[in-house]
Records
---
Amino acid sequence: MKEQTREHQLVMAAKGGDEDAFAALVRLYEKRVFALAVRMCGSREDAAEAAQEAFLAAWQGLSFFRGDASFSTWLYRLTSNACVDLLRREGRHRSAAGPSLDDEGLSLDVPDTALSPQDEAERQELREAIDRGLAALSPEHRQILILREMHQLSYDEIAEALSLDAGTVKSRISRARRQLRNFLLKDGNFSPPAASKATGKEG
Amino acid sequence: MKHCEEFAALLDPYLDGELSPEDAARVREHLAGCDRCRAYVQAALAIRDAFPAAEDVEVPEGFADGVMAAVRADSLRQKRRRTRWAKRLAPLVACCAVVVLAVSLLPQLQRNTAVSPAQDAAETALLDEGDASAAIENDSGAQVPAQQDLDPSAKQALPSPSDSEEGAGQTSPADVPDSSASAPEAEAVSPEAAEREAILAPYSVQSTPSLTLTAEEAGDLLSGFAPAEETEDGLLYELTAAEYSDLLGRLEQEGLTVAGAATAEEAAAAGGAMVLVVPS
Ligand SMILES: [Zn+2]
């Protein structure tokens, strides 16, 4: 709550041309913006460029930012656009490395692949595998999973950030998640099944 | 499992907290008895648990400073651009003034092929815009003769947008109630032509397909774009034809019709369009 008020104050001040307030916003969001950009662009150099463009676009467009979408959602949208622009501009269409995940032969018959990493080392291993899996996804699928799982946007916010309708958000998330899961299954990164009781909690 | 198909589409919204409590309860119930769906949910939760965190990313050193340097450089550039923009408008106005002239003089041109004097006049007029308003004053008193004679002082009134309206007024029956009486011959400008002119005039500044929106109308439709220029009137966006067409579609969805908007076809023909967003 307090964080939100502070953010709102900074946004209002920056809207009025206060560069220091904008600098504070940059520091507040640089990690989240850069984290999205680095996975969208594929390299830290490109990510830095795209992230800078996104912030610059935010500064330039701030006077027209109405504030009914959240500032962060808007910023992620600018970041996504900057990454797409950069890749397009440079003709750097990174073809997905690794196995193709586009086939929907979902190996749903894999029995109980429950995975709950026992310790931090395992989690770290899985995290690296997820990063490889994300890199193998199409940009659209990668982007939407990052916004959902890393930035924890709701479906509405994602729809807003990516200019998609609600139905597309839902189906794209589902496809993206299934593809990532398939990658991890093939990658052999799921740890052995844990107790197969329902993990019905949403997080 | 036939049952699963019903639930397949609910699993992701369930995981993402997007279901109503009732639907979530139904999913939970299904999960208790279905290994396959449960495996999916557990895998997804494990992915979430280990998902890379934004906090873990290392932002390049000096990144924020670099952004702020770019921001300040941009602010400076914008200030310079504002003056440049004014200069850039002038030739556009000149060229459109000629268009307006050509339309309003069409009947006369058939008799009097004085195209280049008209152009010259329009261009000259631009150079001393300061005199233009004075010219209007003079002008309204002597509209009809000025038109007939292609008097340069008449054309001087044309170049700026407000002047153009004045130009349209020259042949508007409303502004010149007894024009038909005073100059029946000169009234070769048909009512249709006058109307066309009146339509032309307000948009005469726009040689590139363009659209002007208030910030309120624009909402955040343009929030994904960086403005090409910040002018004194507002932010100017340069869109590709496809982006422009998309924007028109969205405006329509919101039930907004904007007078004078260039069509998608015009934008396609010109390879893009400009959108000016003015404060509401
Ligand atoms: Zn099931």
---
Amino acid sequence: MFKDVKVGFLTAKSSVKRGNKKTTIFIIFVLSLIFLNLIFLPSLINGMMKLFVGFVQDYAYGDVVIEPADGNVYINDADNILTKIRSLNDVEAAAKRLTVGASLAYEQKEVGVTILGVVPSDEEKVSLYPYIVKEGDFLGDLSRNEIIVGAMIAGTGPGSEIYDNLGEVKIGSLINATYGNNLKKIYKVKGIQEGTFELTDLNALVSFKELESVLGIEGEHKASSIVIRVQKAGEEADVKSQILGMGIKDKVFTWQEKAEVLIKQATQSMSTLDIVSKIVSLIIGASLIFIVNYINTLNRKKEIGILKAVGVSPASVIISYIFISLFYVMMGIILGLVLFLFLTLYLQTNPITFYGSLKIYPVLELSLLMQSILIMITMSLIAGFLPSWLVTKESILDAIWSRE
Amino acid sequence: MKSEEPIIKIRNLKRHYKTGKVIVKALNGVSFDVREGEFLAIMGPSGSGKTTLLRILGLIDKPTSGQYTIKNLDVVNLPEEEKIFYRLTQLGYVFQDYALVNEMSAIENVYIISLMEDLSKEQSQETAKLALERVGLGDKLDRIPDQLSGGEKQRVAVARAISKTPKILFADEPCANLDTKTSRQMLEIFKMLNEKYGQTIVMVTHEDWHTEFVSRIINLKDGRITSDKKVYK
Ligand SMILES: Nc1ncnc2c1ncn2[C@@H]1O[C@H](COP(=O)(O)OP(=O)(O)OP(=O)(O)O)[C@@H](O)[C@H]1O
Ligand SMILES: [Mg+2]
């Protein structure tokens, strides 16, 4: 067996070294495109998901989030829980929020929104809301009749053209809000936030106290969610179990758990696209590698016959073609990675953008890389084996002297 | 006693090629024995079946019918793998059209066989070098076939066949592309191998003067033996 490998290696080496250079380069180039195809779109989609998950973390859920137990509208005893959580070692900050649906009206226009009630001084430590106010200012702890509106509903930000909006809301404009319980309030616009993302730009923020009074739950220590930031990335699961250990009845999620659900829900179509593109590239890739190798092997039918005629074992011949195929694929992978790098650099300066400022970059996960390399290598093994095996089955006479 | 028992026995060997509707009877009932240590020349006009016969003897082709044994072993019906191994370890073959691997240098074409016989790379290269030097190509070890003349390629093919001192050497017009002087050198090598190592040699040739080196001549015509005589010196 070892001598078969030795002889196979010698044959492969001389064949690659002295074979037609143009053919070799062409084969490697095609293989590199196959590989690029295998990793590019998935890593772009991955980059998109990363961005999306990042937003979800930075605005909606923090690192860990507590939500009301099944059947409850609110987390009861929220202030007590907050105090306990803040005293945990690994917790950086925590904030409570209230959420309620409402419709906002300005002049003749009206839109439905989710209004978030936040404690402004706490929010600074758990989310990016306070930092994306493009015009005006964020809420203060004493704000009562003031509101922050998202740029998309204000009708000023990128993306607002695709959603209903309030026209041209400005700082100081007065807006009518109608809550689900038919309570009506008038708010003065204090700021317009722009995160170039529906989650932020289709929302409106008022102070926690304001929503408490609207909902008529003042002094009841209730909240719709508690958003927590941990000190170091990676401590989420640990913090979650500590919170559960406190014996609360409400539901606790890490951002990873939330992201998983979200990605499953919101990117169904995306991952279908991903899978379809993967399967298509796989089939094309496998066929190409196979065809390239098959033609290559058939062109060397005579050599194979000669090798057999002088006593070289079929196993060595097959091994040599596997070596050759592996070599092509390895070079293809390397060249493919170089191309990927260039493409990434290009996208660094010419990013794919949404809403004018939401930039998407390809993010190549190690697991995807490994998976793609494994696929390429498996295909090359098969494509190296099958054709040479078929040719070694032929009689020497046919292989060397047949007129095809 | 060893020269009494034939090493090669063929009986009523036939090889028919089918090309479309026509059947070419390249060998049409050939029988003879070869004793160990013989240096046999096969002669005959072009198309008489010499190459066809030699390929069957070298286990590269199969007869349509008839028996062929080496040391009483039915080599024709060996499984493919064993046949390849038998060829590797017992037989040497010089092809009429050289059959060199185009992408391998002269020395690689030769030493790949020793490598296959499980010699180390250094040993293999050493034997290959010796064989190539013997045929006068010591200065062209690293040339690929495309960089060699017809005669040089032929000598690489000879070197490949003799490098491992096979029990039986088959050579199909090994001097066809060589000048008289080089031909003589090749034949001297064959004679030396035959006399010093007792190798059995079956050589196809159509040059009458080559027969001064051999011990026996078989003449073929239209796939049949027309004469079989010993050469006495
Ligand atoms: N693969 C083949 N298919 C059909 N006919 C063949 C094939 N190989 C050889 N022949 C025919 O068989 C006959 C014997 O051919 P062979 O090659 O054995 O002759 P040869 O004696 O070696 O001739 P030369 O001296 O020209 O080399 C010829 O008529 C040839 O045309
Ligand atoms: Mg011939």
---
Amino acid sequence: MNGLPRIPLADWIDLFVDWLVSRFGGIFDGVANFLEQTVEGIVSGLGLIPAILIALFIGLVAWLVSKKSIAIFSFTGFLMIDYLGYWDAMLQTLALVLTSVIISIVVGVPIGIWASQKETVRRIVTPMLDFMQTMPAFVYLLPAIFFFNIGVVPGVVASVIFSMPPTIRLTILGIRQVPRDLIEATEAFGSTTGQRLMKVQLPLAMPTIMAGINQSIMLALSMVVIASMVGAPGLGEEVYRAVTQLKTGVGFEAGIAIVILAIVLDRITQNIGRQNQGGNVS
Amino acid sequence: MNESNLKKIEVKNVTKVFGKNVKKATQLLNSGKSKNEILKTTGATIGVNKANFDVYEGEIFVIMGLSGSGKSTLVRLLNRLIEPSTGNILIDGQDVVKMNKEQLRDVRRKKIGMVFQNFALFPHRTILENTEYGLEIQGVAKAKRKAKAKESLKLVGLEGYEEQYPNQLSGGMQQRVGLARALANEPDILLMDEAFSALDPLIRKDMQNELLQLHDSMGKTIVFITHDLDEALRIGDRIALMKDGQIVQIGTPEEILMSPSNEYVEKFVEDVDLSKVFTAAHIMKPAETVQVDKGPRVALTLMKNLRISSIYVVDKQNRLLGAITAQGAKEAAETGATLQKVMIQEISTVPAETLLIDLFNLVSTAAVPVAVVDESHRMQGIVIRGALIGALAGNDVYINNPDIHKTDDLKKVD
Ligand SMILES: Nc1ncnc2c1ncn2[C@@H]1O[C@H](COP(=O)(O)OP(=O)(O)OP(=O)(O)O)[C@@H](O)[C@H]1O
Ligand SMILES: [Mg+2]
């Protein structure tokens, strides 16, 4: 503007990404392979089972963890997706979401635990989480493509980055919410840090952690359309194509399939969280 | 029970400063500045200020003081839940402050149990699982720790509740679980921070009695925090009074009541119900007696010289046999009867530790003043109506000096 030289931030980031690719290309390839095979494994595994059985199974699970109406909705909803012809796309999406969420849990929960125990870690992690969540999700797609080419892998990576924060955040929150006097009691009896964590903090934080996982699932689902822009197959792809070709009807059909999947996943995981309050029932 | 005087806990010059400027605050403290001044100039809070005391093996040591006086801080310094700023804390002669993590953990596991004001039970664990927690983290085998935990629950009267969850129990029962959980480890020392303060008065009294019974049968060393003087008097063998982080007086309940060391303690003691504190020993007067083998004439002469209308009859060992009035003695002298024959035998007697509140009825209905006797019925003194009323009115004249005689612990009364 007024004579000040412009900071070439964009150039630096480009340079950094290039450097990463050239330096760690091998690792990225390995990760890409792993992710791709996981997703494809889930898709082909579920593909072997008849749709009606999966719908029944989901209905049954819903019935076990929550109530009958949710069970009926889940069962008929899944059948409807099949009837509309989106079954394979739905499986692709489900696989992408599951993979992302599993990674979110496997990485996010330990980070959350760590941050809950160490104030400094928490100070570093929290702003990073803010960053991850507020940065427009599209932006993650670009470096993801660089590192992993197009296809399902950059989709998974972008979903993981976008959906992991709630799991970390609520893990931290859940553990920190455990009343002080309970922590004091564990200390007074001579617990080690591990014992305190495993026997008191984590069990009591479980409902909160499950709420975080539930949010992560929803965020991962919300990424499917964006992920389809880099070539991830699934319901998102159907929606994306419908939009670019102005096919309103198809767009809605695929959209409804996403909504059904979202509701079913939400209700089931929400109620798993509630069930885990275990001892608190009276 | 605490005659042995073995020191279980020794607290030596322990200070705890909360906040950042610990060094500066300590300096100011040493130069005699008050807690408030230090807070203003450095922003640091004095939690405990140069505490010095010993707790003897098997005693119930009560720490009392107003809110914010540092009771909780002090008790947490004992098992180092709070790190002391300076000073030493010896348990069985070993300095807790110098211990490393493992040693400290071991002391907490084996030697010290803790009971909390708000129970601090684990809501996701059953009563049994709560109780076995301490043993579980020590790696005690499942069957063994379950048996121990059950035993411990039985001790506090909670058999049959093993599979319930804490929120299914009333407050009193929850605190019993807290007590059972602390006892399951078989610690020598119990730390109880306002353990009964969250309970309603009736249940609280039950719990106090139960604690005393447990203490009697198990002989643990107990450090008990309270801000309630009545509670302190009921259960304490010795009481330490805290103010602004400092211990301002340590003594038996009697010493605290009789000679409050300063205004602060006096204020504390002021509104205590005297009838529940003082005992017959405090108000009894020496009794005039005559030995039974002396004749009625001797009795008559004694009464005349002492200007009294009746006199107690005792044997050679000073054991109370009865009393005789001037009228009775005169008749006996005329008929030549022995004292044994004519004396009144139905005399109300009480032990020395009877509370004044329990004396009222007896004293007001007795024809002859109520006699205070020891276990072997030996005469110790008498209670006259005027002294009872005078003492209750707060008139010190009627209260005996505590040094003259020895009364047993107040707590043994009920
Ligand atoms: N963690 C802490 N950080 C800073 N100040 C503290 C801390 N804990 C206690 N204090 C301060 O130390 C002083 C003593 O507190 P403490 O809790 O020991 O009092 P207390 O006698 O137990 O009071 P109460 O009867 O209310 O429980 C108070 O002034 C309190 O504000
Ligand atoms: Mg306190």
